[in-house]
């Protein structure tokens, strides 16, 4: 509530948009309502008071409220509503009532003209009842002043500031209203009652016949000659409805009028039922009974109010929440919120009020946490948990991830992992990753399992974007998509957490995904990203040393043998592609046939490329493969072994510019293809590249034949 109040004050001081000010004002009122009602609801119940025949009605009323919680809550709602209403500034106060009328009457008396005539419309006497009794009027400026003053006094009473209203009436000579206000206090004799409700009350005070006083105020509230705000003053004092509604403009003012009317009806009904109101038949003016039996009835009625302003205001989401708090159906609010958010998540709806105005989700999330903190049931656990999860996701969307761990810590373990992973999935900045590690440690979150779910979430999100390619012609050696980058970046969470086994397993899965879909460039970038981390240092140290204990291996999250072997295979392929790129770069630098420096450089590159690619062609992914990956790995071999073979063949043929022996080396690759043990021929055939290779062989044969005196058969 304090945060909302501070925010509101800041908005007002900076001339912010009125809609934003209104929203924060409503939120501040909402938290004030929560404070008032739940302070009462969570307090120990008080025992009913013992009543005697001579016990004051004040004690009887207190006993009634102790036995009737909804009635007590009505009073609390009245108090809350009074605090929400602001009173416009009143006129500059005068110390004399009807100053101009008084002067006019005095002048007539002095002149002796018109005082005794019956045709004048100006009052002859200056007592407050004169206009009604004489059916006459006061000076127009006095009437205008009274109207402004009555409106001001009504506003003060509506806001619950009875002391200020009484002071204004005394200052301006409106003693009738002052006297009427004094009648509001029910008679109380602390000595006779023997019960201390207010330590400051030591003597008898109040109105003994308050029911009669109410009917006096009701008559004044219905006086047609009186100003509408004067009628509303008396109506408000006695709990009348029509006179108050007539001058009420807002949802809060209408709700206050109805609840005050309901409260007055309830307490008088109780007192009459217990023979505590005795009025002679001629005194007993029938007081209108409330048609609404509960505040719930009132709220439903306001949604159908004849006033378009009230109807519109009743539709505001925060007023819906306020209504739910008043009627104690927060559980239903949480359930509705969950269902609305799930409909958007499941794409049944494009959007709704909770999505469009995220402050509502914030209010509901904090309401759920507040109720949990005081041990109040907010409905089904899954509803409150869902609301909190959606709020964490909203914080992520609004780039407020630094706040999320505080709320994640309030969720059950499984829900916390799910919600937190949603946030972490979109973080790639190293500083923000480090910040989340610090916050996770501060709030004791399960960061390891959260990171596993995070990477799985990213993988699942983009799964449909990576269909397996059908042909080598679809290999992409140049492009990397944003999804590729996000997938690669996600593995850095594991790197930062030193979860080496998870890094390797996830990298293997990502390499497989990239390569099956032909994204060679993305696989290269993944390798480059991991190569810049500590991963390779850790793997190299682990593979070179044999004195690790099992406990040390488990604590360090070292990957298993098969996972490491597969990872190294992917690394080898990517490095092989990098060597092909290296040759292409060097070959593009060739200018003159006799450039000795270039030839030396090119020879060095070919001598590095040839053995590396031959090793890959002969042995890539030929070791033991996990059963669920056999088909996928075979598909990779069909795509990439022919690719490597043909690229090596091309490089060796282009190497003729370096040394004439290289085309012969290209021709000798036929021996590898012919090996039944290696099965390269079948891969060429299955990959539909055999004809392409035969053409390449024919081409290099001509080159070799032209350089050989005895033809190619001496090669």
General description of the model:
The radius of gyration is 44 Å and the shape is elongated. The protein is mainly α and 715 residues long. Residues 114-119 and 548-554 have low confidence and may be disordered. α2 (18-41) runs parallel beside α17. The chain is 66% helix and 0% strand.
Secondary-structure map:
Blueprint: H1 2-13, H2 18-41, H3 57-67, H4 69-84, H5 99-111, H6 130-134, H7 140-158, H8 162-171, H9 175-182, H10 190-193, H11 210-221, H12 228-238, H13 242-245, H14 251-273, H15 295-302, H16 308-314, H17 317-326, H18 330-345, H19 353-356, H20 358-373, H21 381-397, H22 404-408, H23 413-424, H24 430-442, H25 447-461, H26 482-496, H27 500-516, H28 520-531, H29 535-544, H30 550-555, H31 561-587, H32 596-619, H33 630-654, H34 661-668, H35 670-674, H36 680-686, H37 690-707
Helix pairs in contact: 1-2, 2-4, 2-17, 3-4, 4-14, 7-8, 7-12, 8-9, 11-12, 14-15, 18-21, 20-21, 21-23, 23-25, 25-26, 26-27, 26-28, 27-28, 27-31, 28-31, 31-32, 31-33, 32-33, 33-34, 33-36, 33-37, 34-37
């Amino acid at each position: 509530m304090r945060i909302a109040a501070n925010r509101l004050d800041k908005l007002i001081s900076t001339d912010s948009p009125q809609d934003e000010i209104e929203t924060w004002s409503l939120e501040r009122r909402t938290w004030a309502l929560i404070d008032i009602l739940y302070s009462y609801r969570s307090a120990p119940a008080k025992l009913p008071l013992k009543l005697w025949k001579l016990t004051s009605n004040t004690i009887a009323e207190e006993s009634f409220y102790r036995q009737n919680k909804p009635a007590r809550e009505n009073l609390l709602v009245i108090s809350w509503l009074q605090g929400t209403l602001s009173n416009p500034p009143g006129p500059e106060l005068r110390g004399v009532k009807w100053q101009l009328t008084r002067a006019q009457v005095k002048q007539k008396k002095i002149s002796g003209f018109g005082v005794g005539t019956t045709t004048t419309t100006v009052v002859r006497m200056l007592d407050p009842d004169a206009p009604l009794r004489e059916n006459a009027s006061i000076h127009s400026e006095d009437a205008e002043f009274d109207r402004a003053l009555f409106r001001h006094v009504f506003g003060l009473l509506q806001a619950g500031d009875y002391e200020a209203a009484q002071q204004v009436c005394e200052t301006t000579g409106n003693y009738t209203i002052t006297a009427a206000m004094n009648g509001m206090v029910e008679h109380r004799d602390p000595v006779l009652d023997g019960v201390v409700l207010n330590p400051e009350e030591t003597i008898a005070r109040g109105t003994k016949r308050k029911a009669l006083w109410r009917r006096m105020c009701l008559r004044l509230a219905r006086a047609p000659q009186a100003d509408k705000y004067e009628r509303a003053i008396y109506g408000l004092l006695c709990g009348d409805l029509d006179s108050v509604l007539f001058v009420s403009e807002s949802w809060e003012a209408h709700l206050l009028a109805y609840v005050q009317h309901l409260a007055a009806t309830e307490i008088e009904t109780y007192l009459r039922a217990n023979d505590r109101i005795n009025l002679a038949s001629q005194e007993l003016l029938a007081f209108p009974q409330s048609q609404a039996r509960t505040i719930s009835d009132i709220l439903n009625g306001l949604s159908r109010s004849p006033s378009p302003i009230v109807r519109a205001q009743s539709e505001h989401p925060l007023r819906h929440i306020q209504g739910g708090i008043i009627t104690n159906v927060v559980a239903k609010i949480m359930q509705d919120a969950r269902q609305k958010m799930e409909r958007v998540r499941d794409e049944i709806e494009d959007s709704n009020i909770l999505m469009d105005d995220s402050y509502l989700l914030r209010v509901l999330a904090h309401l759920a946490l507040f109720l949990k903190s005081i041990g109040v049931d907010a409905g089904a656990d899954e509803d409150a948990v869902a609301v909190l999860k959606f709020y964490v996701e909203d914080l992520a969307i609004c780039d407020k991830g630094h706040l999320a761990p505080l709320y994640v810590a309030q969720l059950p373990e499984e829900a916390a992992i799910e919600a937190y992973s949603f946030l972490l999935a979109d973080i790639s900045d190293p500083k923000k990753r480090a910040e989340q590690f610090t916050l996770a440690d501060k709030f004791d979150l399960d960061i390891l399992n959260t990171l596993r779910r995070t990477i799985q979430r990213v993988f699942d999100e983009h799964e449909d974007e990576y269909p397996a390619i059908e042909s080598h012609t679809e290999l992409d050696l140049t492009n990397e998509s944003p999804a590729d980058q996000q997938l690669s970046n996600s593995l850095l969470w594991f790197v930062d957490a030193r979860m080496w086994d998870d890094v390797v397993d996830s990298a293997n899965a990502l390499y497989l995904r990239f390569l099956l879909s032909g994204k060679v460039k993305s696989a290269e970038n993944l390798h480059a990203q991991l190569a810049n981390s500590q991963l390779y240092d850790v793997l190299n140290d682990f593979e070179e040393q044999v004195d690790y204990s099992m406990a040390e291996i488990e604590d360090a999250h070292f990957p298993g043998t098969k996972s490491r072997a597969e990872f190294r295979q992917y690394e080898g392929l990517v490095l092989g592609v990098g060597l092909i790129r290296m040759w292409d770069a060097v070959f593009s630098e060739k200018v003159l046939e006799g450039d000795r420096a270039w030839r030396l450089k090119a020879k060095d590159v070919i001598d590095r490329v040839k053995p590396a690619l031959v090793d890959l062609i002969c042995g890539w992914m030929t070791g033991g493969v996990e059963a669920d990956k056999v088909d996928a790995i075979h598909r990779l071999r069909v795509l990439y072994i022919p690719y490597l073979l043909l690229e090596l063949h091309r490089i060796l043929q282009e190497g003729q510019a370096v040394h004439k022996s290289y085309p012969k080396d290209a021709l000798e690759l036929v021996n590898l293809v012919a090996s039944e043990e290696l099965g390269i021929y079948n891969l060429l055939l299955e990959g539909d590249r055999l004809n392409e290779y035969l053409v390449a062989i024919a081409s290099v044969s001509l080159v070799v034949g032209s350089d050989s005196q005895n033809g190619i058969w001496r090669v």
